[in-house]
């Protein structure tokens, strides 16, 4: 077994003075400047009307005008927009990630942070006292209920595309895909990741196993990505129905939604679907063995707040579930800075 090298610590800035602690207490203000600018449509607006004066922005966004100057100054100081003379433009990173329609757009993340996570974090104490999620949609059949509501479904699909779009370039590089004929993405949503893999590997065939309401978005999305002819959708419940066999089976951003017992069961089911000579690829924002990565610790607390039994977990736990399923050879790799990939190889 390969054990992942200890990652460099990713922590908040060192706290030394009372002012540092006060700044930390108000850190939510930084997030709200970004999330509110997105909700108001500022980044989309400046993406197509740049440069603009404060008066032009106030008018186009339908704002009152009171507070707009401070709001824009705050965004300048956060590095999201720039002020030159009396006109505002987007910074490079904002242009790249916050303007709808750009390849690295993360609007789905922002909507989830603003509408779901921000209110839920206000209930962190309740979650810690009760062990219960703090979002309206959590609980049994949470995914099915969310997918039945068109507005929630659309927001969820965009958010998942943001997540898999960030992982895709790393995953494409991290594994020798050309040595394999087929891939099955278990919980693969509307096929964004499979679509990107098929785009990079013209010989590869791909499939997604997901809940029945995902069938239509899958057809639409894989058609839009130009890979529909090599992509198949299998509808079902991955806890109760057998998974179709493939050379490579993936479980990405899936295990963290479930309790440790459910994760072990899913790994066993996914391992059974791997063809001889194939591999099972599992990725999540896995936790380092010692608490050295604040962003991943926060992702794990997100799972406390939005799921019944979920959390992030160390790669060693994932390797143990693979071993229990019958896998004897595992590898651990970093997948960019945000995710860890565990690979289990099946002998021929
Ligand atoms: C967090 S998303 C992961 C999406 C994608 N794999 C990624 O990396 O971004 C979890 C996916 O699991 C699917 N899912 C949840 N419960 C399921 C079940 N019981 N059977 C099949 N799919 C399920 C959801 O519909 C959703 O697409």
Account of the protein in words:
The protein has 348 residues and is of the alpha/beta class. It has a domain of 190 residues: Rossmann fold (3-Layer(aba) Sandwich), CATH 3.40.50. It is built from 15 helices and ten strands. The strands form two sheets. Strands 6-5-4-7-8-10-9 form a seven-stranded mixed beta sheet, with helices on both faces. Helix 2 packs across helix 5, helix 2 crosses helix 7 and helix 13 packs across helix 15. The longest helix has 25 residues. It is globular, with a radius of gyration of 22 Å. The two termini are 18 Å apart. The N terminus is likely disordered. S-adenosylmethionine binds next to helix 10. InterPro entries: COMT-like, COMT_C, COMT_dimerisation, SAM-dependent_MTases_sf, WH-like_DNA-bd_sf, WH_DNA-bd_sf. It comes from Winogradskya humida. Keywords: Methyltransferase, S-adenosyl-L-methionine, Transferase. Pfam families: Dimerisation, Methyltransf_2. This is O-methyltransferase.
């Amino acid at each position: 077994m390969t054990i992942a090298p200890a990652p460099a610590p990713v922590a908040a800035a060192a706290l030394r003075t009372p002012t540092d602690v006060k700044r930390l207490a108000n850190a939510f203000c930084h997030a709200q400047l970004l999330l509110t600018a997105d909700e108001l449509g500022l980044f989309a607006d400046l993406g197509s009307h740049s440069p603009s004066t404060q008066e032009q922005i106030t008018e186009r966004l339908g704002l009152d005008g009171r507070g707009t100057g401070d709001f824009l100054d705050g965004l300048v100081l956060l590095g999201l927009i720039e002020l030159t003379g009396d006109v505002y433009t987007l910074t490079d990173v904002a242009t790249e990630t916050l303007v709808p329609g750009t390849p690295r757009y993360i609007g789905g993340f922002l909507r989830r942070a603003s509408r779901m996570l921000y209110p839920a974090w206000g209930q962190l104490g309740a979650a810690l006292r009760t062990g219960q999620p703090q979002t309206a949609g959590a609980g049994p059949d949470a995914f099915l209920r969310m997918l039945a509501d068109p507005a929630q479904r659309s927001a969820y699909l965009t958010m998942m595309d943001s997540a898999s779009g960030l992982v895709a370039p790393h995953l494409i590089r991290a594994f020798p895909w050309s040595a394999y004929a087929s891939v099955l993405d278990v919980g693969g949503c509307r096929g964004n990741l499979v679509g990107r893999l098929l785009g990079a590997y013209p010989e590869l065939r791909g499939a997604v196993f997901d809940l029945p309401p995902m069938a239509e978005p899958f057809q639409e999305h894989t058609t839009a990505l130009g890979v529909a002819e090599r992509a198949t959708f299998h509808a079902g419940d991955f806890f109760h129905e057998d998974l179709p066999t493939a050379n490579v089976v993936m479980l990405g951003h899936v295990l963290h939604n479930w309790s440790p017992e459910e994760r072990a069961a899913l790994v066993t089911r996914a391992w059974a679907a791997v063809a001889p000579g194939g591999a099972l690829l599992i990725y999540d924002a896995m936790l380092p063995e010692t608490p050295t990565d604040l962003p991943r610790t926060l992702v794990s607390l997100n799972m406390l707040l939005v799921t019944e039994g979920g959390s992030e977990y160390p790669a060693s736990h994932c390797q143990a579930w693979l071993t229990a399923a019958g896998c004897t050879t595992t590898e651990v790799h970093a997948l960019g800075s945000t995710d860890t990939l565990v690979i289990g190889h099946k002998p021929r």
